[in-house]
TrEMBL record:
Pfam families: PANTS-like
Location within or outside the cell: Synaptic cleft
Protein name as annotated: Synaptic plasticity regulator PANTS
Gene responsible for this protein: LOC103373692
Main location per the UniProt record: other
CC annotations in GO: synaptic cleft
């Protein structure tokens, strides 16, 4: 096996991070925020399942747990890509970026 790399899979996050996300999701402040924003209560079950899959992978090296965790993370990343940015990102700085700011004039709001 000279020259070949053997890579071991690592979880994308620490297992405690999944548990922290679950606890945050179940918090009363998140419940109110989610209900106010979306009109429904938040679904936190996936964070809990990810935590248990992560623990299962760490303790026993379960391939089922690994695949379930990978699938969940891929789904989470795909969902994040569906949101468009609020602001358009600049490709270069404004032409007058080096000039001093006009402190006396009216400001755009």
């Amino acid at each position: 096996m000279e020259g070949s790399k053997v890579t071991t899979w690592r979880t994308p996050r620490m297992c405690d991070d999944y548990w922290s996300e679950f606890k945050l999701c179940k918090s009363i402040s998140n419940y109110f925020h989610h209900y106010y924003t979306y009109g429904t209560s938040p679904s936190c079950q996936q964070w809990k399942e990810d935590y248990y899959h992560c623990r299962e992978w760490e303790k026993h090296g379960s391939t089922e747990a690994k695949e379930a965790l990978q699938k969940s993370e891929r789904k989470r990343v795909a969902e994040q890509r569906n949101f468009t940015p609020v602001w358009e990102l600049r490709r270069e700085p404004p032409r007058d970026w080096h000039l001093p700011l006009d402190q006396e004039g009216p400001q755009d709001s």
